[in-house]
């Protein structure tokens, strides 16, 4: 399945570095996240942005996209990029060749529409050439297949293993899948030879979906969570404990922190095996005692009488 040009989707140049790509992704992910943008088309745009980032943030996927274009996932791993480029050039040249076989000659070639099977056939076999199909037939490759796999935020952070059941014509078969630490929503995991049947089996691609979490919200590799604070903690400042996908962390809360302020913990988001990890953002949320004690009520009343502060005029 062809993908949209990830450079165009993210609005970056083809020589953009990882920092540029990450900045562009964060900006677009925030703009199109379905929880924020209620436009009916926002979810599709968010998926496009996530897929584009998954390609360009992975050096190997980016290299293959640059070499083979939007159909790079259908190109076998051992294809030489130079040979691929020559085959495409030959294919677009039109009907200009003749092919000799044991059964006679066949004159013709490719038209303007280029089919991947035609291109692969010319390089690797898999299609007959000429008038005698029996003498020039080559083995065919099974189709690549795609399925989704759901993981929690914690599993995306630390990695996990799953056993999947594949339904095959010969009967169901179980396979063990390793989900690496630091996967992002929309990232694809390739299982070689587990796709459609053929003389050579196709590949199975598992698309990672991070399930909604009651505590965390994930954008790319960044994680967002609430930080509940008592009124006096927000006013005076404190060091607060915070649960993160990777375990307990400490957050320094500056004096005078208001609800909605985001405190950043660098590198405490989802890990990145190939680069900079994401960040964790803790959003302050001031919580008052639901049933203040007599002492708390008296102190609040004293503060209300003594303080000139008016939040509606500040």
TrEMBL record:
UniProt keyword Transmembrane helix, yes or no: no
Q: A Pfam family name for this chain?
A: DnaJ_C
* One GO MF term attached to the UniProt entry: unfolded protein binding
Residue ranges of domain J in the record: 5-69
Q: Fetch the PANTHER family from UniProt.
A: DNAJ HOMOLOG 1, MITOCHONDRIAL-RELATED
Q: Which GO terms describe its biological process?
A: protein refolding
The source organism is Actinomadura spongiicola
Q: Which Gene3D superfamilies match?
A: DnaJ domain, Urease metallochaperone UreE, N-terminal domain
Q: Name one GO cellular component term.
A: cytoplasm
Query: In terms of domain of life, where is this protein from?
Result: Bacteria
- List all Low complexity biased stretches: 268-278
Has the keyword Chaperone been applied to this entry? Answer: yes
What name does the UniProt record give this protein? J domain-containing protein
Q: Which residue intervals make up region (Disordered)?
A: 241-278, 291-314
Which residues are listed as membrane-spanning?
none
Keyword line: Chaperone
Residue spans making up a coiled coil are none
């Amino acid at each position: 399945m062809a993908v949209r040009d990830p450079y165009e989707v993210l609005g970056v140049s083809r020589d953009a570095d990882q920092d540029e790509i990450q900045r562009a992704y964060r900006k677009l992910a925030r703009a199109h996240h379905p929880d924020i943008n209620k436009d009916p088309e926002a979810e599709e745009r968010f998926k496009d942005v996530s897929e584009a980032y998954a390609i360009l943030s992975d050096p190997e996927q980016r290299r293959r996209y640059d070499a083979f274009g939007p159909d790079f996932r259908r190109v076998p791993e051992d294809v030489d990029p130079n040979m691929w480029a020559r085959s495409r050039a030959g294919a677009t040249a039109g009907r200009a060749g003749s092919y000799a076989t044991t059964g006679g000659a066949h004159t013709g070639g490719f038209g303007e529409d280029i089919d991947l099977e035609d291109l692969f056939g010319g390089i690797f076999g898999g299609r007959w050439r000429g008038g005698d199909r029996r003498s020039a037939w080559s083995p065919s490759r099974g189709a690549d297949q795609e399925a989704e796999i759901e993981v929690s935020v914690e599993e995306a952070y630390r990695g996990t293993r799953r056993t999947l059941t594949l339904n095959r014509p010969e009967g169901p078969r179980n396979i063990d899948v390793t989900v690496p630490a630091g996967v992002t929503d929309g990232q694809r995991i390739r299982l070689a030879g587990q796709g459609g049947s053929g003389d050579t089996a196709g590949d199975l691609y598992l698309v990672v979906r991070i399930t909604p979490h009651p505590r965390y919200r994930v954008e790319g590799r960044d994680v967002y969570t609430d930080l509940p604070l008592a009124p006096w903690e927000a006013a005076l400042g404190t060091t607060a404990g915070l649960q993160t996908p990777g375990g307990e962390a400490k957050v320094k809360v500056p004096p005078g922190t208001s609800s909605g302020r985001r405190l950043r913990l660098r590198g405490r988001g989802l890990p990145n095996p190939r680069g900079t990890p994401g960040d964790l953002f803790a959003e302050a949320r001031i919580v008052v005692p639901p049933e203040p004690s007599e002492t708390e009520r008296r102190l609040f009343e004293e503060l209300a009488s003594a303080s000139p502060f008016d939040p509606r005029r500040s």
